[in-house]
Specification:
By secondary structure, this protein is mostly beta strands. It is built from one helix and 24 strands. The strands form six sheets. A four-stranded antiparallel sheet has the order 1-24-23-22, with no helix packed on it.
Length: 305
């Protein structure tokens, strides 16, 4: 992953596109990138050293994934949180049932905190009310921690583990919480970043997008994928914009950092339900894109369930 990059630095992984790629993470023990395709109901792994791609079918829509210390993954499916054995290629044990009506909601974005507790947000699929919530899995118990969202997204933790970020994509807003690492308790919820919605009748190029998945780098900057905005933003801990990275696709979904030095920036993207003329202009839609960056990211947290 080093030669022939286009002028803006982005390249696609040589694997087929996803309908809606999400939840990428770099597995340090395997030196591999994992991600999911939500409508494709599939788990993917790319191993750069061997240029090998593997795909596993899933029995339901996946929202997010996290590595487990003993091997395998935690997978958030529509009907609950499961362990997944990559050797057997199937879910093994349901850790928690879905705490909602699966006909109206599903698990969406999520990640483990530095202590190994798993945090998972939901999406209210009718998108007609703020009925999505943020849940925490710890000690075998799934608790509702926060709500008042429609599409829960953008989960991330600051390098010192004392700030939790959580976005509501529909509201075009990212919130920040003070986070107590020992007990895993968020408090003092406030607006971290607010973005303008798309103006009625405005062309797509005039819309900056809405916040989707996110990651934090070693300097504490929050990288957020701006869905339909064709860009990533790097935000300072006070919410100010430090950098904007244009993308050759309209709908980025989530960034992550990987490679041996965590300076390879990966981003999953979407093509599901996009207009044909847009897909003709953006042939990399749905692909996992990558480029090098100067500031490394944080290593993935393992879920300890």
């Amino acid at each position: 992953m080093n030669a022939g990059a286009p002028p803006d630095g982005w390249q696609p992984l040589p694997v087929p596109p996803a309908g809606l790629g999400e939840s990428p993470f770099w597995h340090p023990d395997e030196a591999a990138l994992y991600w999911v395709d939500i409508p494709g109901r599939a788990l993917h792994r790319w191993h750069p050293a061997t240029a090998s791609h593997r795909q596993w079918p899933l029995p339901a829509d996946p929202g997010c994934i996290a590595p487990l210390p003993a091997g395998g993954l935690l997978v958030a499916l529509r009907d609950g949180l499961w362990t997944f054995d990559t050797a057997a290629g199937r879910p093994l044990e349901r850790l928690a049932a879905a705490p909602y009506d699966p006909a109206l909601q599903r698990f969406n974005d999520g990640r483990a905190d530095p202590q190994g507790r798993m945090w998972v947000a939901t999406i209210h699929e009718p998108r007609d009310a703020p009925r999505a919530a943020l849940y925490r899995l710890a000690g075998g118990r799934l608790d509702r921690i926060a709500g008042e969202a429609t599409v829960g997204n953008g989960l991330a933790f600051s390098p010192e583990g004392t700030t939790l970020y959580w976005a509501d994509t529909t509201a075009h807003r990212v919130d920040a919480f003070d986070f107590e690492p020992v007990g895993g308790t968020p408090s003092r919820r406030r607006v971290f970043a607010q973005f303008e919605p798309r103006a009625a009748g405005a062309p797509p190029q005039a819309y900056g997008g809405r916040p989707d998945g996110a990651a934090v780098d070693a300097e504490g900057a929050y990288w957020v994928a701006m869905y339909e905005g064709a860009r990533l933003l790097r935000l300072a801990p006070d919410g100010g914009v430090l950098a904007e990275l244009p993308l050759p696709v309209r709908c980025p979904t989530m960034p992550c950092f990987g490679g041996p030095d965590l300076r390879t920036l990966f981003v999953t993207t979407a093509r599901d339900r996009r207009p044909p003329d847009e897909l003709a202009r953006t042939p990399w839609a749905g692909r996992v894109l990558w480029r090098q960056v100067d500031v490394p990211g944080l290593p993935v947290n393992f879920a300890r369930v």
